[in-house]
Amino acid sequence: MAIEIRATGRAVPKNRVTNDELAKKIDTSDEWIRSHTGIGARHIAGEDQSTSSLALEAAKQALSAAAGKTGIDEDAVKEQAATLDLILIATATADYYGCPSVACLVQHGLGAVNAAAMDISAGCTGFVYGLETASGLLGISDSRKRALVIGAETLTRVANWEDRGTCVLFGDGAGAVLLEKTGETGKRGIVRSVLGADGSGSEALIMRRGGTKNPFKKGETVELPTVIEMDGRAVYNFAVKAVTGAIEFLMDREGLAMDAIKYIIPHQANARIIHAAGKRLHIPEEKLYLNIEEYANTSSASIPIALDELNKAGKLQKGDIILTVGFGGGLTYGGNVIIW
Ligand code: COA
Fold first, then answer.
1. How far, in Å, is the centroid of ligand 1 from the Cα of 91?
2. Residue 302: which residues within 8 A CB-CB, separation 6 or more?
3. Integer Cα distance of 184 and 303 in angstroms
4. Which CATH fold would you assign to the domain 189-339?
5. Segments making up each domain of the chain, as ranges
6. Is 267 designated active site?
7. Going by CATH, does the domain composed of 2-182 fall within 3.40.47.10?
8. How many angstroms is it from 129 CA to the middle of ligand 1?
9. What is the pLDDT of residues 78-133, one digit of tens each?
10. pTM
11. Ligand 1: which of 33, 42, 93, 236 to mutate, judged by most atoms within 8 Å of the beta carbon?
12. Is residue 160 annotated as a catalytic residue, yes or no?
C-alpha cells in the first residue's frame, strides 16, 4: 500500500500588490522588504473571495487535473468529488469562528457527498500536518481511498495594517493535493513525516482577540480587530532550528544523501530563514524551491502552492524524492518525505 499524490491545484487572487505599491500606503520600501524577507509582491483576496472560495478553486483545479483536464472542468470535478472519502483543510484563517469548518464549506461546494471533512489548526505547518493526518486516515481504513488535502489562507484579512513589521509579510492563496491509496508495494508517495510542536512559544505568533479567552464584548469599542501579533526575532530563531532539525531527521531516518533529493520545499515565510538553514546543511541552491518573491507568506498554503507550481511546470518526474518542511504558529514544525 502507498499513499500517493495523484494531482495538484492552486488558487491565487488576481489582485497583485507589489512592495512599491504598498510603500505608497505604509512607511516601508521595496528595498527593506526585499533585503529582510525576499518578498517582492503578494496577492490579496478580493471582497468576493474568502479562505473557502480559494480552497474550493484549488480543489477544483486538482480534481480537474486528476481527470486529465487543464483548468477547471465542472463535469470532471463532479465525477471526481463523488469519489472523495476525506477533505482536510489546513488554515489559520477560517471563514467562521469555530464552526462550520472550511472543509465542510468546500465539501458542499464540490458536492463531495461521501467525504468526511475537517480543518487542521497547526499554523503555517498545517499542510505538512495535513499530509500525515490524511495518510494515517487513509492507511488505517479499508473503506477510505481518496483524500483532498488543502492549505488555504486569507492572512491579509488578519494582518495589522498599522504594524509595518508584520503586514508586509503576508499574502493570500490556496494549494491542494489529491491523495490516493494505491496497491504499490515499493516505496512511493508520502513515505515519512516528522511533526512537532513547542507550545512554550505560543505567544510568539498569536491572534489574541476574538477567541473565547478574550472575546469581543457587547458594546465594546474595538480598537483593533483580530490581528496577528508576532515576535519576529523569536520566530526567526525557532524557524531556522526547526527547518534544519526536520530536514536532518528526515534524511537520517530515510538514509537519504543530499544528492538523492530533487527538491526541498520549505514553508515560504522569509528567504533569509531558508538560506540560513540551507547554508547550515550545505544544501545546493537549486534544490531549495523558493517562490516567496511572488506570493509572500501564505502560511499553510505556501507548500502546496509551490508543489503545484513545480508539478505544472513539469519539474517532477516519477521517483523524484521531495522534502517539505514547515514551521509556524503554535509554535509547530514538521516535514514530509514524498516520492513522486
Ligand atoms: N519597512 C521598513 N522598516 C521596517 C519595517 C518595514 N516593513 N518593519 C520593521 N522595520 C524597521 C524597524 O522599525 C526597525 O527599525 P529601528 O531599528 O529603527 O527600530 C528595523 O526595521 C529592524 O526591525 P526588526 O524587527 O529588528 O527587523 P528584523 O531584521 O528582525 O526583521 C522580520 C524582521 C519580521 C523580517 C524577521 O524578524 C522575520 O522574518 N522573522 C520571522 C517571521 C516569520 O517568519 N513569521 C512567520 C512564521 S510562519
1. 24
2. 124, 127, 151, 173, 175, 267, 268, 269, 291, 292, 295
3. 25
4. Peroxisomal Thiolase; Chain A, domain 1 (3.40.47)
5. 2-182, 189-339
6. yes
7. yes
8. 28
9. 999 999 999 999 999 999 998 999 999 999 999 999 999 999 999 999 999 999 99
10. 0.97
11. 236
12. no
